[in-house]
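I am hoping you can look over what I have pasted underneath with an eye to the fold:
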Amino acid sequence: MRQELVAAGFGGQGIILLGITACVAAGLYDGKMVAQTQSYGPASRGGACRTDVVISDEEIDYAKALSPDVMVLMSEQARDSYLSEVRPQESIVIIDSTLVKEVPNEIRNVYYIPATEIAEIKFGQSMVANMVMLGAISAITELFSYEALKGAIKDVVNNKFIDVNLKALAEGYEYGKSLVGGTV
């Protein structure tokens, strides 16, 4: 079964790292077929940024999202540019509510995660908001397991930052679980 994740925001938020980490988690640790693509504007900080992750039980013949099952939006510009790609009654939309205030009412499955706020308050840096989001994505969607994400972070993140990223992941996972009524 093919599942598609699109995450978008602006350069400097770690959107590409989010996609790579998700891909490693699903592929290496959860044993799925995976593909990841990325695009970003000419500015390394502040420009538009997007990653597509495709996860499947079968070979993947096209590496970009055709109809995202999950859309993660971490900026107003990303919302304005990409929200039209979702299926309003079916897709899951996860918003960084620190930076994106609302989505149209016709989008049914919306989860508001204050990822940047959590990162700044709990860790003193917005740089780990991407990992807060990854934890929430795992809790809400089960596209990839939480355990797989922990392994993937150890594989892709610089050793100096593994601990803070793992803690940010845990914060996001707990927040996401609280939204879907589960317990950690």
Observations:
- The mean pLDDT is 93.
- Helices lie at 15-29, 76-82, 115-123, 129-141, 146-156, 162-179.
- Strands lie at 3-10, 33-40, 48-56, 70-73, 92-96, 109-113.
- Residues 3-179 form a domain with the Pyruvate-ferredoxin Oxidoreductase; domain 3 fold (CATH 3.40.920.10).
